[in-house]
Amino acid sequence: MAxxxxxxxxxxxxxxxxxxxxxxxxxxxxxxxxxxxxxxGSGIRLDVNEYSDGLGNENIDWRERMVAQHLKSLLxxxxxxxxTAATDDSNPFNVDAFRKSNLSASWRIVGAxxxxxxxxxxxxxxxxxxxxxxxPRGRSTVSSDDHSDLVDNSAKLTRRQLREKRREKRVAxxxxxxxxxxxxxxxxxxxxxxxxxxxxxxxxxxxxRDIENENSDTTVRFMRDQMIMSRVYLxxxxxxxxxxxxxxxxxxxxxxxxxxxxxxTDADLPxxxxxxxxAMGQVLSKAREQLYDxxxxxxxxxxxxxxxxxxxxxxKRQSTFLSQLAAKTIPNGIHCMSMRLTIxxxxxxxxKRMFPKSENLENRDLYHYALFSDNVLAASVVVNSTIMNxxxxxxxxxxxxxxxxxFGAMNMWFLLNPPxxxxxxxxxxxxxxxxxxxxxxxxRQLESASMKEYYxxxxxxxxxxxxxxxLKYRNPKYLSMLNxxxxxxxxxxxxxxKILFLDDDIVVQKDLxxxxxxxxxxxxxxxxxxxxxSFHRFDKxxxxxxxxxxxxxxxxxxxxxxxxxxFDLKEWKKKDITGIYHKxxxxxxxxxxxxxxxxxxxxxxxxxxxxxxxxxxxxxxxGYNPSIDRxxxxxAAVIHYNGNMKPWLEIAMTKYRSYWSKYIKYDHPYLRSCxxx
Length: 677
Hints:
The chain contains 26 helices and ten strands. It has helices at residues 2-18, 25-55, 62-74, 77-86, 95-99, 112-133, 144-198, 218-239, 243-260, 273-291, 294-328, 332-347, 376-388, 407-416, 441-446, 449-457, 481-484, 489-492, 538-541, 547-552, 569-575, 577-587, 599-605, 630-635, 654-661, 669-673, and strands spanning 367-372, 396-402, 423-428, 498-502, 506-508, 525-527, 564-568, 610-612, 618-619, 638-640.
């Protein structure tokens, strides 16, 4: 409203100056200008001053002079003093000075923005007035259209000035933000430079923090990488007849090999390793300058990769062969102990070779165990662990069967170390006269020419890697009747009704008498099942491409484990389990139904005749599986070291060995003399 009023006043002012209105309008103009001075006194002050400064008093129109003279009569001294103080030639509109004046609150309510806008309008009016004053007096060039254009131009100018001020403010804010960002970048760059100064040199790039690792074999791996590249350039140097460079590379490779040796960590390297690494780096830089060819280098690296692949496969086969070979062998200490015990046994008089409590061997009210083994130390752990965890050891009877070679040692050990109040008896499998080739298909097959060809002549390995093929099926235990004797339990113990079969690679951790109370529900075999979602099922062990197998068995049937099995010998006899075993064994003479072993024929023989036991009775895998839960092991009644890593071998897993070794008295004279520790 103030702006509009200001525009009207300017129009009236210009009309009066042009002399086109009647003198009567002077009074109206006087009142309007008085109102204008009331609100925009500083603006009129500016115009009057500038008129007088620029043109002199003689050039001011009489009407304007009259208006200026009557201002004093209209305004109080206090208002004029405030307007004069707020007007400055260097800063024509001093808002702060106006606000700080001693006017009452009603005089100070006008905002700075309104005063600025009106001041701009008045200045524009003054400029047009100057131009008009230069025209000849009495001639008017301002029409009503010119007046409208003037008002529009003044509004546009005001808006443009406001936009410019907002733009300047925005630019100032952006500059401030940019300054803050620049300061942050500078600080980050300073910190980065400090970290670079402290970086360890010799890495691929000090700017790549992923290279800066704490691995203990960084230098070893770097030197090996250097040797790989040096071998690449060695081939290229020979190809391009760079003999000097060829000899240099060859020398550096030999030096690096000597420095590396068998080192696996940086701590294993000698002090000269850094110097050798630098020397190799210099030679490699020289070779790169002279020999580098992307195509040739890529081809050589690909060839080296293929060679390394073949070497890895060969080493894996060798490793498999050696691990299986180690699993078959008996450690020197155990063999030594067995020999010493055998010698001492046969030095005993016959009357001292007898075990006490022989009357318990056929007592059906006691708990009977069958253990077939040729390992004295392993058998002792089974017996000791069972007795130490039994509630009433006097009710336990152990039936041990071994071969002729270990019969004396097994007897001597348990004569010297009787199992407390328990009963023990040792037999020789070679003395079972009924177990012959005419009755037992396995013995007949072992004596056949085809089996001898399979074991001793056919595909006889000339190297370690080639000898690993199907090696596990050529294990000597499959040639021993101790392994197949489990299918003849009623013949070995005809007076017993139930017997618990134990392997010699198990450890008993709890009292096992509860197994005799388990109702097998008419089944012959009580065992823990081993199948998971897709493994340890029948199709893993049997050849289902054979019609005899596919017609009689379910490939998804769940497998179970030997090692701890409760056999009902009365049901065994009723169902003629041994006859079923003979049937399938005769059909497998050419090994078309399954490979060698006792578990596949066991699965077939006891198919539909096995009662599953709770898994806590028997935990398997300690001979091959490193990830068995410790709680599961400690809660198990029996733990089984099935697999190649038997606890008495050097290849055993250390984390599981203590469960077995705590039942051995390493301070025993026989163990100390044979250096078993």
